[in-house]
Amino acid sequence: MEGYEDRLKQLERIAGSVVLRGSESLCRLLRYLGQQALESPGVPVREYQIATQVFGRPNEFDPRLDSTVRVQTGRLRAKLAEYYRGPGANDAIVVEIPKGTYQLGFRAQLIPEAAESELAQQPASVHAARESARRGLVWKLAFAGMTVVAATLAIMLTIRPAPRPMRAAVNPGESLEKFWSGLLGNPSHPIIAFRSGIGETLAMHALDNLFASLGHTVPAKPMILLSQPDMDSGDVIFLGQPPDNIGLRGFHFQTVAAGGHKGETAILNLYPLPGEPATWMPAGPPVTEDYAVISLEPGPIAGRWLLTLAGTSTWGTQAAAEFVCHEDTVRSLLEKAGRGRFEALVHTRVLDGVPSETELVLVHSAE
User: Fold this and answer.
1) pLDDT tens digits, one per residue of 91-106
2) In this structure, how many other beta carbons lie within 10 angstroms of the beta carbon of residue 253?
3) Residues whose CB is less than 8 angstroms from the CB of residue 263 and which lie 6 or more positions away in sequence, other chains included
4) Do the beta carbons of residue 67 and residue 271 sit within 8 Å?
5) What's the distance, Cα to Cα, between the start and end of the chain in Å?
6) Which of 33, 70, 192, 258 has the fewest CB atoms nearer than 10 Å to its CB?
7) H or E segment at 81?
8) β partners of residue 356
9) CB burial string 39-78: b at 16+ within 10 A, e below
10) Which tens digits make up the pLDDT trace of 55-84?
11) CA gap 348, 311 in Å, rounded
12) What b-and-e string marks burial along 284-309, b requiring 16 or more CB atoms within 10 Å of the CB?
């Protein structure tokens, strides 16, 4: 592993790359975390010190009310991954920020030239075996890819033409227009960042119908392709669990690490009010009940918003999206949340793979 100067040069190489070009706040965060890692290795970096020293927040900074540090760190983490998939693919030093921390790390990367050198020194029989295995893997991946595409097309062809029986056609009313005016009223329309799943596909259909009835068309892209320009250009609607819990303040998604629910996704209530549970879990498998978060938080750019519609499963995400697509349910949400930032939790029953009987459980409002 290269030394201090090489690591500094690597940080500047990343900051000057096309991936971070024009993102001064992320470059400033990268240099700060890099300096802390080089000058104070092993010392944890706190959210408060980043907020006050990097983003100029006042001494009264409260992370429960301001998600700037979490949002920006998540964006930087995604940008680092994007850099090493592109211009930094052959760099000798990898810079990364492990999830759940603000501690920047460095590690060596085996570049292609080094790998080829190692292969060249191996016997011909090893090369032949590797090549045979590689060709077999290519065919397996190709077959798997065709299977996934075929299955996806089948699902889309199955679900798109037929209207869902549990809901009538969307008729926008006063509450719907009031709820969506903040996101759809900006000159730069929002973008939907979605995860793949049957529930997300059906949720997208519901949102498309709603936006059409309100006279808008909203673009969408897979969440893994969400870029810095997307975050900077307008509002973002997360359809599914957002990466690194971006845009979430009091409710976080977390995978259960041990016990009977190991591997399942839970919703954590970071700041429970008296009488509120600290955790919500789906019932199943198969999922028969699910919980979902509906959250509206300020984005990293002034005047922009991050709307999260996400369940612990694909069915919960569908239920959350449908909840904000109908006049009666949106009215009940606005009565408790007002027009400012809020986080709400909904519960839905899943019958035969269809979310139904979705109800509002609680709302944490900033007002």
Assistant:
1) 999 999 988 889 999 9
2) 19
3) 255, 256
4) no
5) 51
6) 258
7) helix 68-85
8) 349
9) eeeeeebebeebbbebbebeeebebeebbbbbbbbbbbbb
10) 888 888 888 888 889 988 998 999 999 999
11) 10
12) eeebebbbbbbbbbbbbeeebbbbbb
* pTM over 0.70, yes/no: no
More confident call, 6 vs 132: 6
> Long-range contacts: 87-96, Cβ < 8 Å, 24+?
87/17, 87/18, 87/19, 88/13, 88/14, 88/17, 91/10, 91/13, 92/2, 92/6, 93/1, 93/2, 93/6, 93/7, 93/10, 95/7, 95/10, 95/11, 95/14, 95/30, 95/34
Q: Are 311 and 292 in contact (CB under 8 A)?
A: yes
Q: At what angle do helices 124-159 and 198-213 cross, to 10 degrees?
A: 50
pLDDT value, residue 150: 39
Phi/psi region, residue 338 (left: phi>0; alpha: psi -120 to 50; beta: rest), is: left
What residues does 275 pair with on adjacent strands? Answer: none
Q: pLDDT tens across 108-132, in order?
A: 987 555 444 544 555 555 445 555 4
Q: Which stretches of 214-352 are DSSP H helices?
A: 228-233, 314-323, 327-337
DSSP 231-269: HHHS-EEEESSPGGGTT-SSEEEEE--SSTTTT-EEEEE
Q: Which two tokens stand for residue 313?
A: 């499963």
Contact criterion met (CB below 8 Å) for 270 and 253: no
Name the token pair of 132: 């045979």
Q: What is the structure's pLDDT at 23?
A: 82
For the stretch 227-248, pLDDT in tens is 878 777 778 999 999 988 888 9
Q: What is the pLDDT of residue 291?
A: 96
Closest C-alpha among 54, 89, 88, 93 to residue 70: 54
Instruction: Say how far apart CA 283 and CA 125 lie, in whole Å.
Output: 53
